[in-house]
Amino acid sequence: MKKVVYGIILVAGFGAAQADFAPDKYKMEQASDLLDICTVDTSNPVNAEAYGFCVGYFTGAMHYHRALAKGPDHKAIACPEHTVTRAEAISVFVAWAHSNPQYLNEEPIEALMRAAVAKWPCKPKQAATGGISH
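^ that's the sequence the OP posted. Answer follows.
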């Protein structure tokens, strides 16, 4: 019986947490949207939520890049020589975006990859076998 009660409490708590999060309020139409989300001021009440969204976006992008680079039909886009953390990738993107505002109207993933290539370009041999790791 205790397991059932704990399960109900857990599900109810999860449902309440989900109701507070509205992913539709974070538009990801262009790179400037990603920059805005990833740089929400720490004093802003939605900072943790926005940063979580930013980290999730970068995690997905890094996993997708790694999966593509492993396949026979794609080459790595960026080739860091060390393991790149999400925080490092976000920091690289933010710095790059501030230095390259001409690309902020592009799709967010395009700008993110431009930033990664600028920071970690591939050598010809790496492009065939390497990629962003995580």
